[in-house]
Each structure stands twice: as C-alpha cells, then as structure tokens.
C-alpha cells in the first residue's frame, strides 16, 4: 500500500492536446479517491499516466517513496480495471483471475489458491469454471476486480468500472466496491463522470476541468460549498440554483427578495447567488424568496418544485411529496441558515 504524489504533472498528446495540465495532487495511503469531471476533462488520461500507460510530458508521479515517472507500467505495481473489464473470453473465471500471477511465473498451485480465495471474497466462488460470456455484467465486473486485486498491488486504478452496469446492479456494485476497498485498504483512484457515484464512494474527490483540478475536498465539502460556479453546476443530482444578485444597503437583493448577505460586500456589488434546492424549504413565514409555483417534478420520495419569481428568475427547491404546494399558488422559499453562497461575477469563485 502506498500514497501517490503527483507534482506539476502534464500529459500532452502528439496532436498537442494538453489533457493534464501542471497538476499537483497527493492521495493518502489507503484512500478511496475519485476523479470526477465532464467528458474530456482529462481524468482518464491522468489515471493512465499514473499507471504508466501514457507518458508524462512534464512533472512526476511517485508511488510510495519511489518516483515512477520513467517506469514501465509493469514495474509500478499498480492494478487497473478498465471500463469494459478487458477479460479474456477464452479463459475461465479462475484463469482470468490468476492471469497476473501466471505472468509473474507463480506456481500453478499458488495461482489456483489465490483465484479461489479472491473469488470467494467477491462472491464468485461457484463460477470459477465459467467463461466471461456466461456471466452477468455484475459478475464480469467482479471478475475484473478480482483479477486486479489478486496481485498485491500498491495502488488500484479504476476507470469507470460501474458504467456498464444497469442502475440496480450499479448500486449493488457500489456497496460491494466500497466494502472491498475498505477491507483490503488499498489506495484506490476511481474515475467517474457520475457525481452521485463519486459522492457515495469516495473519501475525497477532485473535480477536474480542462486538465486541472477545480476543487479538491470531501464529498461533503464539495457538495455543500462548491468553490466555483463550474463545480456548483456539476455537483448535485438536482442542479444548484444560481441567480443574479446585488448588494443593496448592506443586504442581498435576489429574485425580487431582500435577504441578509452571508458576506460583507460593498453596495452595488453584483454577485451570483448559489443555493441548493435541498437547502430551501417552504415556510409560512420567514425571510425568503417568494414566487409562483410553475412546475412540480416527481423525484421519488421528494419533488422538485420550480418557482417563478417576480423578476422572472426560476428557483428550484425539493419538498417531501406530502408538502407539495399547488401549481399556481404563491409561496415563500426560505434558505437554511448558512447555506446561501455568493460567487464573484468575474471569475465565478466563491466569496
Ligand atoms: P471521458 O469521460 O469522455 O473518458 P476524460 O475526462 O476521461 O473523458 P480524457 O479521455 O482523458 O478525458 O481526454 C482528455 C482530452 O485529451 C480530450 O480533449 C481528448 O479528446 C484528448 N485525448 C484523449 N486521448 C487522446 C489521444 N490518444 N490522442 C489525442 N488526444 C486524446
């Protein structure tokens, strides 16, 4: 097991695309770390550069105390699971799991023993003689994981390993993966574009954009206090409300309402006001934003209510189904104490 230290790392493709751009990052020993971001932000390239499958153009990658920047993938002692699992179709489950040991010329009995033990811990015990084509997606995913952890690697790298599973299996696999990672305690870097998955699984998350890290923090930090409007837009299953606001007479004027400003700013400062739908509630009285209920969307146990405010802006809030207001009624949404965020108009960073 080992920590990963990345210093000023850049990965530039031959076509000139700077997929990873002077990036610094330290991942602790035993940490479950998620790289999150939209398509093309460079998360897969960063993972592949850690693995040695892409060559760094500048900077360094260290695993444990070793600078591995110039090491071949095979010398880095990392295990990787790819999005499509990359199982060998002509080999049995047992042979697939034992493959890395075979390559390392371990004795047959040891290969068999490790395959059986690993398969057992991943609930694949009865499937050792099957071939990948005879397995469900969830089982194939577990075989890929088993093969990765069969060698005592220092680091486990996962590239969207759950993306080929349907919604139900995905939830099951998430729980499984989290438990496995904590049991083995292996330093794990997990690439996903699914923010809910990152929030659910990771100890810490790096939100990336254009080859750089926009925010680094615990799922709670990133959810509660996105450091800029890019992260605010990206995180959350219902998007954060981002409204135009102005400081007037020391208070915040937003969507036709006047609220206490969470930050002391000079009058006439223009800001973007961020508030999550989950942190707004409908109150009969209180200082909030008043609007007319325009739509209600069913989210399961809760509903997303959209208000149209006097200045035309739209405000979303979630309520329990039994508290749904009537469409067309006028209601007031009150922000939970301390949950209103202000972002600068120029650079979109939190104030
Ligand atoms: P996705 O979620 O779609 O996989 P990503 O965040 O993992 O995206 P990367 O695959 O790392 O992003 O790609 C980062 C950038 O590098 C993109 O602009 C992409 O087009 C470019 N890129 C990726 N692979 C190559 C390659 N082999 N050659 C040239 N450019 C590449």
UniProtKB/TrEMBL annotation:
What keywords are assigned to this protein? ATP-binding, Cell membrane, Membrane, Nucleotide-binding, Translocase, Transport
Ranked from the top, the taxonomy reads: Bacteria, Bacillati, Actinomycetota, Actinomycetes, Pseudonocardiales
Q: Which residues form a coiled coil?
A: none
The family database entries (Pfam families) matched by this protein are listed as:
ABC_tran, TOBE_2
Residue ranges of every copy of the ABC transporter domain listed in the record? 4-235
Q: Which PANTHER family does this UniProt record tie to the protein?
A: MALTODEXTRIN IMPORT ATP-BINDING PROTEIN MSMX, TREHALOSE IMPORT ATP-BINDING PROTEIN SUGC
Give yes or no: UniProt keyword Hydrolase.
Answer: no
Q: Which SUPFAM superfamilies match?
A: MOP-like (SSF50331), P-loop containing nucleoside triphosphate hydrolases (SSF52540)
The protein's GO terms of the molecular function aspect are:
ATP binding
User: Could you tell me what this protein is called?
Assistant: Sn-glycerol-3-phosphate import ATP-binding protein UgpC
Query: What is the originating organism of this protein?
Result: Kibdelosporangium persicum
Q: Which residues form the signal peptide?
A: none
Q: Transit peptide among the record's keywords?
A: no
Query: What top-level branch of life does the organism fall under?
Result: Bacteria
